[in-house]
Amino acid sequence: MILGAGPAGLAAAWRAARTGRSVVVLEAAPYVGGMAASFEVGGIRVDAGSHRLHPATAPALLADLRGLLGDDLQTRPRNGRLRVAGSWVGFPLKPVELAKALPPGLLAGIARDALTGPLRKPRQDTYAEVLRAGLGPTLYGALYEPYASKLWGLDGSEIDGEQARRRVTADTPWKVAAKILSRARRSRATGEGGSGQGQIFHYPRRGFGQIVEALADAATAAGADIRLSSAVDRVVPRSGLDSAPQVRTADGTTVTGRHVFSTVPLPRLAAMTDPPAPAEVLAASGSLTFRAMVLVYLVHGGGRWTSFDAHYLPADGTPVTRISEPTNYRESADDPTDRSVLCVEIPCAPDDATFSADEATLTGIVTDTLARTGLPPLNVQEVVVRRVKHVYPVYTRGYGPALEALDTWARGISGVTTFGRLGLFAHDNTHHALAMAYDAVDALTPVGFDHGAWAMARLRFADHVVED
Ligand SMILES: Cc1cc2nc3c(=O)[nH]c(=O)nc-3n(C[C@H](O)[C@H](O)[C@H](O)COP(=O)(O)OP(=O)(O)OC[C@H]3O[C@@H](n4cnc5c(N)ncnc54)[C@H](O)[C@@H]3O)c2cc1C
Fold first, then answer.
1. Would the pLDDT of 163 be above 50?
2. What Pfam families does this protein's entry cite (predicted)?
């Protein structure tokens, strides 16, 4: 049994069904794909926020996806823009362009920080301290500090240092900007180019969701039974050698199987397991929070809005973090030429005013953002709003012991294994979720689940670094 039909659940279903296992997938939503799904707005396929398949995808996984999607899985050059200190710079970044765009005061601060770098050490294990020490206070203040408070709703000093290590090690636009800016003075003189930044990405012709749809089709063809609109509300682990784990869906249906793979949010698993998790585990679980997101889609009449795939907005006094234009992520004859659609990402808390704001208020936020960042105005033909409650796990300072308590409990429940982005409370990409699924299925043996192999796999997951 697999709980959740996002990338993790579907990849597990396909891999398990291919080896002749009987597989039932229970998915709460009426569609497959979770956060990686696509749907139509204004007759154009869109994603739940900007999604790309990163070149860091393991070759074997990429080969499997190519096998499923064929030529529809395109390799595309990145063509974004990043807003730094009030100017737009192209991404992938060019050092000379970047250095020219920046105010002299900022460049001087970066140069000063570069000189004092060896002397800086984080005084506490917080996002703010780790990044101030590593990148310097100037870059931290210009890029990462405002971005953190938008994305996670917390000041950098309230975010655990682990967040900086997980998210900022990759070649994200922010990281690349920071690297290049640190060298900006030298670059101005030499004109040398940047390297190592994510220059390409993979993307399906019919939207990112084509990946999960192909996985679902392949799993079904291999014999998996995918049941949509089937929210699980109770999980009964194996209680003895002769018993089998059981799950129940909201309509009262029970399903029994040899093993449960759960990809639902880890705190949700703790809340619905019977017998219940110990009180201290539930208390720890209650302290872990998720960031939500409002996605505002605006259909723009009159062809493409811009030629860029995404516009990254780390600061600028707007709650918007990114605006993407899905039709620019792919080459597709299916996409209309007389209109386009924008996807605007607004992170928020699941219980705040932004999450429940009406369409007019959200459209106002978008219009204001375009005006204050010099983006072209829109000819709005239609607005569609989506609200997603569990988007980013929040690594509040000191979250580690609470997660450890919950994870230790979860590892101890018999016949149930949790993985996936929300299942492990990890800010992971799709290729990570797919890799976890493969490892989980590979740990199933004829005599039971190989906990040793899974423990080794979990160690590998600790190296996952989030890409933007
Ligand atoms: C804005 C944004 C941008 C992103 N950009 C990228 C990107 O560029 N590249 C990339 O690789 N990744 C990106 N990601 C991450 C990517 O979406 C996730 O890594 C991936 O979807 C995780 O897959 P998953 O299966 O672990 O979880 P999910 O996709 O969350 O799937 C979990 C599934 O479980 C279901 N579920 C929950 N509770 C229950 C229940 N009680 N019963 C039954 N079903 C339940 C949910 O409905 C969902 O379908 C992005 C994410 C966001 C939010």
1. yes
2. Amino_oxidase
Q: 289-394: what CATH class?
A: alpha beta
Q: Is there an atom of ligand 1 within 6 Å of 2 CB?
A: no
As a whole number, mean pLDDT of residues 81-95 equals 84
Q: How far is the CA of 119 from the centre of ligand 1 (A)?
A: 40
Distance CA 365, CA 232 (A): 36
Structure tokens at 393: 């796990």
CA of 165: how far to CAs of 128, 130, 161, 457, 468, in Å? 11, 8, 7, 20, 14
Where are the domains positioned within the chain? 2-35+210-287+397-461, 95-193, 289-394
Cα–ligand 1 centroid distance for 19 (angstroms)? 25
Kindly give the number of the ligand 1 atom that is closest to the alpha carbon of 392. 53
% pLDDT > 90, the chain = 76
Topology, domain 2-35+210-287+397-461: FAD/NAD(P)-binding domain (3.50.50)
CA of 164 to the centre of ligand 1 (A): 21
Ligand 1 binding pocket includes 397 (Cβ within 6 Å) = no
Please indicate whether residue 198, judged by its CB atom, sits closer than 6 Å to ligand 1: no
Q: How far does the centroid of ligand 1 lie from the alpha carbon of residue 264, in Å?
A: 9
* For residues 370-396, average pLDDT: 96
Predicted pLDDT at 100: 83
Q: What was the pLDDT predicted at 192?
A: 34
3-state DSSP call for residue 235? strand
The yes-or-no answer to whether 2-35+210-287+397-461 and 289-394 have a common fold is no
Q: What is the pLDDT of residues 259-290, one digit of tens each?
A: 999 999 999 999 999 999 999 999 999 999 99
Q: Whose CA is nearest to atom 20 of ligand 1?
A: 430
Using CA of residue 10, residue 11, residue 16, residue 18, what is the dihedral sign? positive
